[in-house]
Amino acid sequence: MEMPFVAIAATKEMRSCRILGLTNENASDKTGAGSEARVTHQKHPAGRIALGMSGGVDSAVSAALLMRAGYDVVGVTCRFQDNAAADCAAADAAAVCALLGIPHVERLCVAGFEREVVQPFATAYVQGLTPSPCVGCNACCKLPGLLEAAEELGCDRVATGHYARIVQLVDTGRFAVLTALDVRKDQSYMLSLLSQDQLSRLVLPLGGTTKTEVRILAADLGLPVAEKPESQDVCFIDGDYRTFLSQRGVTDEPGLIVDRTGKVLGHHEGLSGFTIGQRKGIGIAAPEPYYVVEKRVDSHELVVGYASDAQAVSVRLGKVNWQAITCLEGPEDASVKLRYRSTPAPCIMEPEPEGGVRVVLRSPQPTTAPGQFAVFYRGSTVLGGGMIEEVSSV
RNA sequence: UGGCCCGUCGUCCAACGGCAGGACUCUGGCUUUUGGUGCCAGCUAUCGGGGUUCGAAUCCCUGCGGGCCAG
Question: Which of A22, A53, A256, A323 is deepest in the core (most CB within 10 A)?
Answer without folding.
Answer: A53
